[in-house]
Design goal:
Blueprint: H1 3-9, E1 27-37, H2 43-49, E2 63-65, E3 73-76, H3 91-98, E4 102-112, H4 118-125, E5 137-141, E6 144-147, H5 157-167, E7 173-176, E8 179-183, E9 200-201, H6 209-212, E10 220-223, H7 232-237, E11 241-245, H8 249-261, E12 268-271, H9 275-287, E13 292-295, E14 312-315, E15 322-325, E16 359-367, H10 373-387, E17 398-407, E18 410-418, H11 421-424
Parallel strand pairs: 6-7, 10-11, 10-15, 11-12, 15-16
Antiparallel strand pairs: 1-3, 1-4, 2-3, 5-6, 5-9, 7-8, 13-14, 16-18, 17-18
Length: 426
């Protein structure tokens, strides 16, 4: 199957006559094969064995709840692999089937409006003659996005702004030059010029200053789905060491630009890797990395060499204090990578030292309600299922933040919790 044919399978349905956004129009079923992992403890092993066979599409997680048994997982396979044709199977897949570690079944991957990016949706709506230069860049200040639309796109401005707001939950207002074209709040606060600079694609940007406030200078943070650095750059400005990763090459380029533009290269390392692998690789690498950020003192021309102040030295720690997973559509399924993450390194943490196990900050979507109680219970249930350890709303060091509404029936949440010792050392 050609690469272009595979890409077409996952594109949204097209409606170039749409003038008012109809989210319900964007639905699609993609027939695939899936490897059902018959024993939960074998998920990591099977995922590693089938890395080359699994579906790899941005924003489309390949690890899913099994359609027949919610207690086990199904690994979605590439479209070229057919459940009823073992000639399309790799040798490793055949071996796992023979060993009865997996079996192969059909899986209808259901895609909705929430699964597609801003660019995907606009590519399905705008006239074909306007697809070459879809507006994809803007300046962000606070939670206000500033566009500079060409005249040919002005008659689409409300549609563009609506999709932009949907796909970027923390942006509340969209402005074109001096005209407000979209807002998710009754009024927009005045932007300030002190915010970090980001050259970004509309469909990628998410920012949450509240979380950055939790980070202490000198700590190390692992930003698993960093985008263009909305967490990494502000954290680095606080002298926090950040290992920032994003699988999307465009986001990674934007991240590198933001690091350079904001002059935080001493505190941020950028990576372009699969998030599942990055969690373990970065943790292991940090343990063996010796690094100091040296900040030269500011010296005036009148200061003599003898009286010049000393440079400030910040030593990078050996363990991460925080892990951020800001991919709300699928971040929770990355949690099994924390199982056994520090096995064999128990001596690095309390009660042997004063260092606590890291905080995990995982973003997700859930159903909107007046008090969020049902959503909080469901989020904790999903997290507990992935970790094999029960956490509940109200537990010590478990906080569930209501970030904001993203649609009439959906809210955007962040759950923060301390990695349990029984999970980290398992």
């Amino acid at each position: 199957m050609k690469e272009s044919e595979v890409a077409d399978m996952f594109r949204p349905p097209v409606n170039r006559t749409m003038r008012i956004l109809d989210r319900s129009y964007f639905q699609k079923k993609v027939p695939l094969a899936a490897a059902r992992v018959l024993q939960k403890k074998q998920i990591a092993k099977c995922r590693q064995e089938l890395a080359n066979d699994m579906l790899k599409l941005e924003r489309k997680p390949a690890v899913r709840v099994d359609p027949f048994d919610r207690e086990i997982k199904a690994l979605l396979l590439r479209p070229e692999i057919k459940s009823d044709d073992d000639s399309t199977w790799s040798e490793k897949l055949r071996a796992l089937v023979r060993e009865k570690q997996v079996d192969i079944t059909n899986y209808d991957l259901e895609l909705t409006y929430d699964d597609w990016t801003y660019y995907d949706i606009m590519s399905a709506i705008l006239p074909e003659e306007e697809l070459d230069e879809i507006p994809t860049g803007f300046t962000i200040v606070g939670h206000v996005a500033h566009l500079n639309l060409r005249d040919s796109y002005l008659h689409h401005r409300h549609l563009l702004a609506t999709v932009l707001l949907d796909k970027n939950p923390t942006i509340r207002t969209v402005i074109n030059k001096t005209d407000m074209v979209g807002s998710s709040t009754p009024s927009a606060p005045s932007p300030t010029s002190s915010s970090p600079a980001f050259p970004i694609s509309m469909s990628k940007f998410q920012k949450r200053a509240r979380l950055v406030e939790l980070f202490k200078p000198g700590e190390a943070v692992c930003d698993v789905m960093a985008g263009v650095g909305p967490f990494a750059v502000p954290a680095a400005k606080k002298k926090v060491f950040v290992w920032a990763n994003d699988l999307n090459p465009e986001c990674h380029q934007g991240l590198k630009w933001a690091i350079e533009k904001n002059k935080v290269s001493r505190f941020v390392r950028s990576f372009c890797e699969d998030g599942h692998d990055f969690i373990r690789k970065s943790t292991k690498s940090l343990l063996s990395t010796n690094y100091k950020a040296i900040i030269p003192a500011k010296v005036s021309r009148k200061t003599s060499a003898a009286s010049a102040p000393q440079a400030t030295i910040h030593t990078q720690p050996k363990t991460f204090a925080h892990y951020i997973m800001n991919l709300p559509a699928s971040a929770i399924i990355f949690l099994p990578n924390f199982i056994g993450l520090y096995r064999g390194h128990e001596g690095l943490f309390t009660p042997h030292t004063g260092t606590k196990l890291p905080m995990i900050h995982v973003y997700c979507f859930n159903t909107k309600s007046d008090d969020n109680k049902a959503a909080e219970m469901e989020i904790c249930r999903e997290i507990s299922e992935e970790l094999g350890y029960e956490i509940k709303p109200g537990d010590e060091e478990v906080t569930i933040w209501d970030v904001r509404d993203v649609s009439p029936q959906k809210r955007y949440f962040c759950t923060s919790f301390r990695l349990p010792a029984s999970v980290a050392f398992r």
